[in-house]
Structures are given as structure tokens and as C-alpha cells.
């Protein structure tokens, strides 16, 4: 089958690799309907994460089950499914407590690869959610977004306790940040302040439900946000970047007693204990337990109440994955979808 494989920083090639095969009785193999490139794929692409040997890329997926192992009972061949970017058993104590992304048996799909025609899904029973039927073609981007960026933005908003009467600030205008805006709107937030300086992203943030836009970054962004919130800061802040600057901006943007949901994959962030101590904020985040939210998100998409697939502003065939990576790396695209 064809798959996008990273050979070295900046060197993505679409090439033939072996078709996935059922190994464990709990595995499934799916044929992808569409694939996509994630902001977190850019970390190894940029050489920030080290690489030992060629690596099949991708971790988001929607598709049709082709084959299941002998222990799989929740899904069957022919069913359309969506799953999280973390495969999880669904039965361990951590899964049952709502944190499948830290399942004691978890497998990060990035280690398996899904920018390909087919993908192996470990722990199929715990991981995959069958759709109510065959999705209309225009719902495919929305369902694909649910696999990671929507679920991650949603968790960011839930972790930040976005809800009625609350002012929510979102740091980061990538797909996750924009979908955290959508999530905050769905969760009933009163005011949603998106921090973005890029025109197409600001427009999408407003479309998703942002009420205010702040274009300043870092401490200037914090000052502007405080100005908008009577000097207090936001009740809820979603951090959707993962850098030192964005984490600091998020914590400093929250009011005492406020909540910060941090879902940007952290790279070399160090926090001052003293600053944390005096900030009096709640911090909650990490790899989003997307599987927990999937049934609800699929339902909202199926009923056409949300349209998260709007974050895909570049659609190219899988063979043009190198251009999809370049466009995202250069911030020419918010998120690229790969058609199959
Ligand atoms: Zn992702
Ligand atoms: Zn588990």
C-alpha cells in the first residue's frame, strides 16, 4: 500500500510499504477514507523530535473496517469507524476513569502511521467507534477532525472548565486552538477570546464562535486580555501550542482560581514554581482522552450541529503529502487533508 514516510527532517516520501496485518486477536485493519497532517507531525518533520530510521507518519483516521482479530466484538468488517489518535483498551481502570489516552495498554497511533491507504488499529474494541451508517462525503472531513484536533480542542475546553458565564481565552490559532473555540461555544461559554494575528484564522475563529480577537502575543497579549477582562484575566484558558511562550501566556492570562487546559504537545517548557504558586490557577492537560468524547462529537457531527472539518483549508491527494507538509510548515495551510 502507499504511505507517507518521513526519511529525514523535511524529507517526506509517499512510497509502497507492506500492508498491515492482524497480529494480536484484539487488532483491526481499516481502509482509510481520508487522512490528514497534524501540527504535531511537524515536530519530527522539523527535526525537533529525533528520528531513528524511516517512519510512517500520521495518527488521525476515519475509514471502513476490513478485517478484525478473533477477540474483536464491538466492530465488524464493512462498518465505518472513527477512533482516537491513541489506541486504548477501554477496560482498564484508567480507561474507565475517563483517561483512555493514558490507558495502561495504550499505543500512540503515530507509532503505527495512518497517512496511508490502510492502518492497523490495536485494541479495536476499546479504540474504534462505529458510525451510525455510511457518512455523506461532506461529513468525512468533520469525522476525520474528531479523531484528534476536535477531540483535543474539546478536552482543552473541558479541562479549562469552559461553560456558561465564563470568559474563555484560547492561546494558539492552529486547528486545535480554533476547535477549542468551537468547543467553548458548544459548552456555553459567555465570552471567547481567540488570540491570533493571522487573518484567515481570525475569520475562522469568529465563525466558530469567538467574540473577541487579540493579536498581541506573549506578555503584550496578556496585558491586552487583562484589559478586556477588567484587569482580572479569563476564567478559563486553553493552551494549544506547547511552547514556553504560549504556556506562560496561558497561565498569566488566567485569573486567580481560574483553569488552564493545556493540550499543545509540550516541548522543553519549564515553569517557575514560584510563579505557579502565586498564580493560584488549576492546571490540567496532556494528550487528550479523545475516545471519551467521541460518541458525543460524532453525534453532533452526524446531526450537522458542528462543522469542525472547516479547519481543512488544503485538500490534496496522498501522493502530494510532501506539499501538504510544506504548506503546514510554512503556515500557508491551517490543516491539510489527504484524499485517497
Ligand atoms: Zn494530531
Ligand atoms: Zn485501558
Biggest sheet, open or closed, and with what strands and sense?
7 strands, mixed
How many runs of DSSP E, i.e. beta strands?
18
Total domain modules:
2
Ions and ligands: zinc ion
CATH topology call of the largest domain:
Quinone Oxidoreductase, Chain A, domain 1
Work out the helix count.
12
- The CATH homologous superfamily of the largest domain is named Medium-chain alcohol dehydrogenases, catalytic domain
Descriptive report:
One of its GO terms (molecular function) is zinc ion binding. Belongs to the zinc-containing alcohol dehydrogenase family. Keywords: Metal-binding, Oxidoreductase, Zinc. This protein is an alpha/beta fold. The chain folds into two domains: 2-148 and 289-339, Medium-chain alcohol dehydrogenases, catalytic domain (Quinone Oxidoreductase, Chain A, domain 1); 151-285, NAD(P)-binding Rossmann-like Domain (Rossmann fold), CATH 3.40.50. It is 30% helix and 26% strand. The chain has twelve helices and 18 strands. The protein has helices at residues 42-45, 93-96, 124-127, 140-146, 149-159, 175-186, 199-208, 218-228, 244-253, 273-279, 290-302, 321-329; strands spanning 2-8, 11-16, 28-37, 55-56, 62-68, 80-83, 86-87, 107-108, 118-121, 128-130, 167-171, 191-195, 212-214, 234-239, 254-262, 282-285, 312-317, 335-339. Strands 3, 5, 6, 9, 10, 17 and 18 form a seven-stranded mixed beta sheet that branches. A six-stranded parallel beta sheet has the order 13-12-11-14-15-16, with helices on both faces. Strands 2-1-4 form a three-stranded antiparallel beta sheet, covered by helices on one side. Strand 17 (312-317), helix 12 and strand 18 (335-339) form a beta-alpha-beta unit. Helix 5 (149-159) crosses helix 6 (175-186). The longest helix is centred in the last third of the chain and has 13 residues, at 290-302. The chain starts with a strand and ends with a strand. 52% of the residues are buried. The mean pLDDT is 97. One zinc ion binds next to helix 2. Residues 38, 40, 59-60, 85, 148 line the site of one zinc ion.
Amino acid at each position: 500500500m502507499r504511505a507517507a514516510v518521513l526519511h529525514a527532517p523535511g524529507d517526506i516520501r509517499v512510497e509502497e510499504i507492506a500492508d498491515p496485518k492482524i497480529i494480536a486477536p484484539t487488532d483491526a485493519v481499516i481502509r482509510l477514507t481520508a487522512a490528514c497532517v497534524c501540527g504535531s507531525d511537524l515536530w519530527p518533520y522539523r527535526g525537533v523530535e529525533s528520528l531513528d530510521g524511516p517512519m510512517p507518519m500520521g495518527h488521525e483516521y476515519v475509514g471502513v473496517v476490513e478485517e478484525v482479530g478473533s477477540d474483536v466484538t464491538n466492530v465488524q468488517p464493512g462498518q465505518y469507524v472513527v477512533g482516537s489518535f491513541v489506541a486504548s483498551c477501554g477496560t482498564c481502570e484508567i480507561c474507565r476513569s475517563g483517561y483512555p489516552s493514558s490507558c495502561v495498554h495504550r499505543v500512540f497511533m503515530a507509532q503505527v502511521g495512518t497517512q496511508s491507504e490502510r492502518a492497523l488499529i490495536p485494541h479495536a474494541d476499546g479504540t474504534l467507534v462505529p458510525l451510525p451508517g455510511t457518512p455523506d462525503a461532506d461529513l468525512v472531513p468533520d469525522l476525520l477532525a474528531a479523531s484528534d484536533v476536535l477531540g483535543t480542542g474539546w478536552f482543552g475546553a473541558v479541562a479549562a472548565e469552559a461553560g456558561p458565564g465564563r470568559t474563555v481565552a484560547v492561546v494558539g490559532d492552529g486547528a486545535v486552538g480554533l476547535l477549542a473555540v468551537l468547543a467553548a461555544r458548544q459548552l456555553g461559554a459567555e465570552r471567547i477570546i481567540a488570540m491570533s494575528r493571522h487573518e484567515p484564522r481570525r475569520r475562522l475563529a469568529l465563525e466558530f464562535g469567538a467574540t473577541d480577537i487579540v493579536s498581541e502575543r506573549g506578555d503584550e497579549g496578556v496585558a491586552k486580555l487583562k484589559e478586556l477582562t477588567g484587569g482580572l484575566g479569563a476564567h478559563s484558558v486553553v493552551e494549544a501550542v506547547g511552547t514556553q511562550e504560549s504556556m506562560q501566556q496561558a497561565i498569566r492570562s488566567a485569573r486567580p482560581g481560574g483553569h488552564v487546559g493545556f493540550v499543545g504537545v509540550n516541548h522543553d517548557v519549564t515553569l517557575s514554581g514560584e510563579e505557579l504558586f502565586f498564580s493560584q490557577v488549576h492546571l490540567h492537560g496532556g494528550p487528550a482522552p479523545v475516545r471519551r468524547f467521541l460518541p458525543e462529537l460524532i453525534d453532533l457531527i452526524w446531526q450537522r450541529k458542528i462543522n469542525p472539518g472547516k479547519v481543512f483549508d488544503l485538500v490534496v491527494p496522498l501522493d502530494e503529502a510532501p506539499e501538504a507538509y510544506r504548506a503546514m510548515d510554512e503556515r500557508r495551510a491551517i490543516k491539510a487533508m489527504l484524499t485517497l
